[in-house]
Amino acid sequence: MDTIRLMSNHRVADLERAERWYTALVGRGPDARPMDGLLEWHLSDTTGIQVWLEPEAAGSSGCTVSVADLDDAAVALARAGIDHGGVEAATSVRILRLTDPDGNRVVLTD
Which pTM was predicted? Predict the structure, then answer.
């Protein structure tokens, strides 16, 4: 295996609502719609987020994403309408906990 691509999977009950939320999170619309019920955001050449329409499993997913400036991300997300509790100190990093409309967890870290 030369290159490994890692895509976190987030299961949702309402794909249109999820598309709006993840578009606000990433700052742009999905990069791909590989099949019905699936949206993809490519965060780099080897990482991304997949959002699947799976109502029976909605809210049971999560991921952690490292960002360059957590404080700027917190401000930008608040402006985009994504509610959060602010940046928190953790043992060795700082985190920003986010929850999509279905209850899936996205944690940003710096």
Answer: 0.91
* Confidence category of residue 51, pLDDT binned at 50, 70, 90: very high
User: Residue 14: beta bridge partners?
Assistant: none
Q: Which two tokens stand for residue 23?
A: 């578009």
Please compute the mean of the pLDDT values over residues 60-86 and round it to a whole number.
95
Task: Collapse the DSSP code of 61 into the 3-class scheme (helix H, G, I; strand E, B; otherwise coil) and give the result.
Answer: coil
Quick check: 38 and 53 in contact, CB under 8 A? yes
Beta strands, E only, 13-87: 32-35, 38-42, 47-53, 62-66
**CATH class of the 6-109 domain in this structure:** alpha beta
How far apart, in whole angstroms, are the C-alpha atoms of residue 102 and residue 3?
32
